[in-house]
Amino acid sequence: MMRGHRAIWSYAWDLHDIGLDAALGRVADAGLDTVSLATSYHAGRFLQPGNPRRRVWFPQDGTVYYRADPARWRGAEIAPLVADIVATEGDMLGALIDRRARGGPAVSCWTVCLHNTRLGLAHPDHVVRTAHGDPAYYGLCPSSPAARAYAAGLVAEISEVYAPDRIEIETLDFMGFDHGFHHEKDGLGLLPEDRFLLGLCFCPHCIAAATADGIDAEGARAEVARLLNAAFAREVPAPAFPDFPARGIEAFAGHEALHAFLAWRPRVLAGVAAELRAACRAPTRLTLIDFAGSWWGGVDLGLIAPHVDGVIWCAYTAPPAQIAAELAALRGLIGAGAALSLGLQLFHPTVADAADFAARVAAAEGVADGLNVYNLGLVPPARLGWVRAALAAGLRPAPDRA
């Protein structure tokens, strides 16, 4: 049996509707020892076969699921909004912390940082903007001092007031264009390079910060606008960068200002991670939720790893052989001292059955220190049996990092 944490991502409304005792019973029966609660989250439409009351649910957009203290946020340009259900249905984070004190499971806070449409609409001067100046309201820009202060404020408040075992930070990036929004329309037939270029942020905060760092940010913006205008003018799509995305940002090496701007973006995110690290109070540990395509949003784990205690690598669609290879590469990148967890989902048909899930878990043998499973309310309760069977088969973490 794995000695590291074994967590399940969960929503406050599911804990309420299932009942806290019954929900924690499901968690324990599955062989899991940690509840990772969404403490800052976005909107969506969720089909919830694991929830006995809210079968289809539309969460309140861009809210937090704990009792934020207005006094802490007085004077902040961007401040959190507490979800209505915290008042009507209780502070589930507080309830979990109380259960932990009485021998219950460990508690992790799954915290969405910069993906917040409600805040983006309320603070358009702090959102990601395309090379043409169009806002992406769903993403606060990590170059914005106010957005950074908001993310750091969440980490500080949660760690100081609740002291969870971990805070798992998500969307610590520039989001990108290919995110997923309401009723998206694309009649052009966007190529990968087009989607990537549309996701680059050239808001005033990025332009000013990059320019101060010696980057020709305006030149990069003009070049991206020119490339996009050319793509929009073509009768049918035709790649201008046929080696993208295979070569990553090196596919743009022939465009000096653009390439320099792309190389600069990860430094911004490393700076944000450092600020969150400084805001996180011991004994709470800071963990980054990441995935294979995050470099599109500017993430460079080599730069961020020194500022976090660990990484949860979400390999939802990867087959077992790919999971093993990715984890091995990550271990070399983040070093022996950082915790490395595998994030898996229980969605069918991406995961076919119990044997398929077990094979994915086994791929982490000897490398991963922990497991995070998605998600308590979004799958039938019976599917948690896949987790129980996989963990019963045994998963040993890498030596000396339990």
Q: Order of strands across the widest beta sheet?
A: 1-2-6-9-10-11-12-13
Compute the gyration radius: what is it?
21 Å
Which residues form runs of ≥5 with pLDDT under 50?
A: none
Given helix and strand content, the structural type is: alpha/beta
Mean pLDDT, nearest integer?
95
CATH arch. level architecture: Alpha-Beta Barrel
- How much helical structure, as a percent, in the residues? 25-40%
What this model shows, in words?
This protein is α/β, with parallel strands linked by helices and 402 residues long. It has a single domain, classed as TIM Barrel. It contains 14 helices and 13 strands. Strands 1-2-6-9-10-11-12-13 form an 8-stranded parallel beta barrel, surrounded by 5 helices. It has a two-stranded antiparallel sheet with strand order 3-4.
List the helices and strands and how they pair.
Elements: E1 6-10, H1 12-18, H2 20-29, E2 34-41, E3 46-47, E4 56-57, E5 63-64, H3 84-89, H4 92-101, E6 106-112, H5 117-122, E7 127-129, E8 135-140, H6 145-161, E9 166-170, H7 192-198, H8 204-212, H9 217-233, H10 256-279, E10 285-291, H11 301-304, E11 310-314, H12 320-334, E12 339-345, H13 354-362, E13 370-374, H14 384-392
Parallel strand pairs: 1-2, 1-13, 2-6, 6-9, 9-10, 10-11, 11-12, 12-13
Antiparallel strand pairs: 2-5, 3-4, 7-8
